[in-house]
Amino acid sequence: MGAALTRYRIIAYVVGVVLIMLVVVGMPLKYIWDEPIVVETIGPGHGFLYMIYLVAAFDLGRRAHWPLSRMILVMLAGTVPFVSFYAERVVVGWARAGQREQGQKQEREPVKG
To answer: Which of 56, 59, 72, 104 could form a disulfide with 8 if both were Cys (CB 3.0 to 4.6 A apart)?
Structure first.
């Protein structure tokens, strides 16, 4: 699960930064100064990166055995500026807590052999 968590963390930050650039820079340029070049350039990139984010969130959620509702909330976090950064921190906490629980469960199970 460690590699899935790392992939998720990286793409969460990338999607968050690109979304902020799109909303903070691109949207004002397009709607205030009638310069759509940033939106036209960054928008499709964000869409592609968001699809990768969805796959990474699903993969992590599947490996961590999250309920579907949690997975959906994490996936939606990539659509709101700044929320992906907060969600990334929360997800890391969930994943590490799950790893600790699994490690404790393995310690309690008798070794077969």
So the answer is: 56
Instruction: Please name the amino acid found at residue 47.
Output: G
Residues 8, 16 contacting (CB under 8 angstroms): no
CA-closest candidate to residue 64, choices 21, 35, 93, 29: 93
Q: What is the largest CA-CA distance in the chain?
A: 72
The domain limits of the chain are 2-108
Q: Is the pTM of this model over 0.70?
A: yes
Q: Could you tell me the two tokens for 107?
A: 């310690």
Q: Which residue has the tokens 């009638």?
A: 34
Phi, psi of 19 (to 5 degrees): -65, -40
- The CA distance from 101 to 77, in Å, is 25
List, run by run, the mean pLDDT of 10-residue segments along the chain (113 residues). Answer: 89 92 93 92 93 94 91 89 89 85 64 57
Residue 110 has a pLDDT of 60
Phi-psi region of 107 (alpha: psi -120 to 50; beta: other; left: phi over 0): alpha
